[in-house]
From TrEMBL, chain A:
Keyword Iron: yes
UniProt keywords, alphabetically: Iron
Keyword Iron among UniProt keywords: yes
Domain Ferrous iron transporter FeoA-like: 9-79
Name the record gives this protein: Ferrous iron transport protein A
Automatic annotation (TrEMBL), chain B:
GO terms, molecular function: ferrous iron transmembrane transporter activity; GTP binding; metal ion binding
PROSITE patterns for the chain: G_FEOB
Protein keywords: Cell membrane, GTP-binding, Ion transport, Iron, Iron transport, Magnesium, Membrane, Metal-binding, Nucleotide-binding, Transmembrane, Transmembrane helix, Transport
Residues that, per the record, bind GTP: 2-9, 27-31, 49-52, 113-116
Protein location: Cell inner membrane; Cell membrane
CDD domains xrefs: FeoB
UniProt protein name: Ferrous iron transport protein B
Record has Zinc as a keyword: no
Protein's organism: Larkinella arboricola
GO annotations of cellular component type: plasma membrane
Topology in membrane: Multi-pass membrane protein
Function: Probable transporter of a GTP-driven Fe(2+) uptake system.
Domain FeoB-type G, chain residue ranges per copy: 1-162
The organism's place on the tree of life at top rank: Bacteria
Length: 79, 703
């Protein structure tokens, strides 16, 4: 993906079916929950589906489905 | 214990069968399920089912319990052996919690579940290697069908007689701080000395979680804060470190014990279903259709059962009247107690249907999709996608619904959910709706399959929902609080419902409805019968003589009816109703309805029973050859000469009951959950005003 601000791309910017590798988190408090749920730096995730209004979204993380709001997804930075 | 959806409850049901009871954890009001199981012929053990969690760091109230118990060996529920259920199809994430529990020093057994699902995904797990890597017993089970229970019981026996505990911590906090320039070793040993702990990981929990630990007192907490300052300990940083550290080791363990041949991109069938159920258009269409079906089921399909029970009660009442000698005792039994009980049992079919359908939605995994569907909409109203569950279960009963709000992490979203949930029409309102709708709405079928009465019923439920959303919106503007709401949650795979679970849920809810609501209703019915049968001084006799004197020329049957109703008016209950009448006249109610309103203040389900009692006492000789509905239909308004229950009165009553907070148990629950009288009183106030004003408007507009 050739985006001008590649370093701020987050999971919230993914398209359905697109894959990305988690790099870091923007919000430490929220990252604790995400880490526990298996969203570790270096893990590959893919956007599985979006709720009807585009928010919340569902991610595929190591074989299971994790849903979160878009603002929460925006704290997960990807490569 | 274990992750949510790992099969804990299945295993619990397999172990205990029907020998379970629901209680509260001491100190906190989270539902605790416990039951007994036989390990062998001679040993019986108590099994406790804890709420599902992802880690021992709680993110919401219901998760707090697990840590509270495990970090405190003096807790009455502290386990001798902890069985941790692990979902093999999601091994790494489940091992996180497992490794934390193991490190707390409890003798553990891993119950490795859902191996069949893992195998379908081409993941093979070597339980022996896993056991060797972790240094704890691992037992393969299949909780759905009950495989491996014997092996599990053997393992429990062994852990009880000679506990095997891993000799090293999976993650040792004392060894982890070195790199960060933090003297964790010193800090941990300080905590251990101060609190006489023999486990490094428990010491860490004291440091991180002491504010949530109910077993620590204020000075103890302050001292921990002092230690944290002294060493410059940062809780968030350290937790991050711990989680990453654990996952690293879990990765190593998994490499040894797991053969993973899962093709990376193959969508599972759950994901394919999601494409449809979360579709922008079809998602909502399907959700609405399901709701519509539920209401059809409650009203139309349950009706034959309801009619059958209604006639049965009437028959028993008549038979008793014929067989037993006449007298106050017989009257008390038939007009008082039996009329009250009849008002309760009639609604068992509808309540059973309701709980059956709701538990189907939960069992299948659809409920969490509904949360995702609704989160965006709910947020507009200051609620959370998770608020959907309390709101939907509020249709059954507000008490468990309000307790279910504990899973909402944000206090503000949780409070708003609590405040508006009682506006959802609970099953106790169902009897009132049923009777009044049947009275004034014709039984017609439209579009070939929709029952007109069912539609009105659904409209009432939607009215409650709409009111709940509007009220939530208002509270969103009023309640200011800054805290972050999280909506990070797992969507479980779709599963075929476990019929024994559904059965247990239905059985439990019907049982508690009959016992809890039933006792109140019967008690109030008896009190009411006494109040309605006796009056101050000889007022009642005077009233009777007056009637007999005035109306000598009309048929006896009518005289008897007039006598009965005049006597009721002169009784204690009649006096109360009369006092209330000016206040409720604008809503279209007379003093008889007033009596029912007062008596249903404690619990709204009493209304129908009260009406039944009042009208059986107030009619000729108490000879009951008609059902409650027929009695209401023939009730005459003395002022107009027409039927008392005109559509205006009936709808005014319906709207009143949609909004009114007439339920002591709910008020008590809100008090408990919000820890004070402020919110329950606000709730009672706004709902009462809403009920009165709306009922007033409805009556005045329809009159």
């Amino acid at each position: 993906m050739d985006q001008p601000k590649e370093n701020t791309r987050s999971v919230a910017d993914l398209k359905i079916g697109e894959k990305a590798v988690i790099r870091s988190f923007r919000d430490q408090w929220m990252s604790l929950k995400l880490l526990e749920m298996g969203c570790l730096p270096g893990t590959e995730v893919s956007l599985h589906c979006k709720a009807p209004l585009g928010d919340p979204i569902c991610l595929n993380v190591s074989g299971y489905c994790l849903s979160m709001r878009k603002v929460e997804a925006a704290t997960i930075l990807v490569d | 214990m274990g992750n949510p959806n790992s099969g804990k409850s299945s295993l619990f049901n397999q172990l205990t069968g029907l020998r379970q009871k629901v209680g509260n954890f001491p100190g906190v009001t989270v539902d605790k399920k416990s039951g007994t199981a036989f390990l062998n012929e001679t040993t019986e053990v108590v099994v406790v089912d804890l709420p599902g969690v992802y880690s021992i760091y709680p993110k919401s109230l219901d998760e707090q319990v697990v840590t509270d118990i495990l970090a405190n060996p003096d807790h009455p529920d502290y386990p001798d052996v902890a069985i941790v259920v692990v979902d093999a199809s999601n091994l790494n994430r489940n091992l996180l919690l497992f490794s934390q529990i193991q490190d707390l020093g409890v003798p553990v057994i891993m119950a490795l579940n859902m191996l069949d699902i893992a195998r379908q995904q081409q993941v093979e797990i070597n339980a022996v290697r896993l056991s060797m890597q972790l240094g704890v017993p691992v037992v393969k089970i299949n909780a759905r069908v009950g495989e491996g229970l014997d092996r599990l019981k053997k393992a429990v026996e062994q852990q009880l007689s000679e506990p095997v505990v891993a000799d090293k911590l999976f993650f040792d906090p004392a060894l982890a701080g070195a790199s960060a320039g933090l003297d964790m070793k010193g800090l941990i040993s300080d905590v251990r000395e101060n609190y006489r702990l023999d486990n490094n990981y428990v010491a860490l929990q004291y440091l991180i979680q002491h504010d949530g630990f109910t077993f620590l007192d204020q000075p103890q907490r302050v001292r921990l804060d002092g230690l944290i300052d002294k060493y410059g300990f940062n809780e968030l940083d350290f937790q991050t470190k711990e989680t990453i550290g654990r996952y690293q080791r879990i990765g190593e363990v998994a490499r040894e014990a797991v053969t993973n041949n899962r093709p990376l991109d193959q969508p599972t069938w759950s994901q394919r279903i999601d494409r449809i159920l979360l579709h922008p258009f079809w998602g909502y269409a399907i959700f609405l259709t399901i709701l519509l079906l539920i209401f059809q089921a409650i009203f139309a399909w349950a009706q034959p059962f309801v009619d059958g029970i209604d006639e049965g009660v009437t028959w028993i009442n008549n038979t008793l009247h014929e067989r037993l000698p006449e007298g106050p005792l017989t009257d008390l039994l038939t007009d008082g107690i039996l009329a009250g009980i009849g008002g309760v049992v009639v609604f068992i079919p509808q309540i059973a249907f309701l709980f059956f359908l709701i538990s189907l939605l939960e069992e299948s995994g659809y409920m969490s999709r509904v949360m995702v569907l609704m989160d965006r909409i709910m947020r507009q109203f200051g609620l959370n996608g998770r608020s959907v569950v309390p709101l939907i279960s509020g249709v059954a009963c507000a008490v468990p619904a309000i307790m279910a709000t504990r899973s909402i992490g944000s206090w503000r979203e949780r409070l708003i959910t609590i405040l508006v949930t009682p506006l959802m029409s609970c099953s106790a309102r169902l009897p009132i709706y049923t009777i009044l709708i049947a009275l004034v709405v014709p039984e017609k079928t439209i579009l070939g399959f929709l029952n007109m009465q069912g539609l009105v019923m659904m409209a009432l439920y939607l009215l409650g929902l709409a009111a709940a959303l509007v009220a939530a919106y208002v509270f969103k503007k009023l309640v200011k609080a800054r805290d972050k709401g999280l909506f990070i949650m797992e969507l479980p795979t779709y599963k075929w419902p476990r019929w024994n679970h559904v059965g247990i849920t239905v059985w439990d809810s019907v049982k508690s409805f009959v016992w809890q609501a039933g006792r109140v209703i019967v008690a109030i019915s008896i009190v009411l019968w006494v109040l309605a049968s006796y009056g101050p001084g000889d007022d009642m006799e005077q009233a009777e003589n007056r009637v007999r004197h005035q109306s000598a020329n009309i048929p006896t049957e009518q005289i008897e009816n007039r006598v009965a109703s005049e006597r009721l008016e002169a009784s204690y209950a009649g006096r109360f109703g009369k006092i209330l009448e000016p206040a409720i006249k604008p809503l279209g109610y007379d003093w008889k309805i007033g009596i029912a309103l007062i008596s249903s203040f404690a619990a709204r389900e009493v209304f129908v029973g009260t009406i039944a009692t009042i009208y059986s006492i107030g009619s000729a000789d108490g000879e009951d050859d008609s059902t409650v509905r027929e009695k209401l239909a023939t009730e005459v308004n003395p002022e107009t000469g027409g039927p008392m229950y005109t559509p205006a009165v009936a709808f005014s009553l319906l709207v009143f009951y949609v909004f009114a907070m007439m339920c002591m148990s709910t008020i008590a629950t809100v008090y408990r959950e919000t820890k004070g009288w402020k919110w329950p009183l606000i709730q009672l106030g706004y709902m009462s005003v809403l009920a009165y004003v709306s009922a007033f408007l409805v009556y005045q507009l329809m009159k």
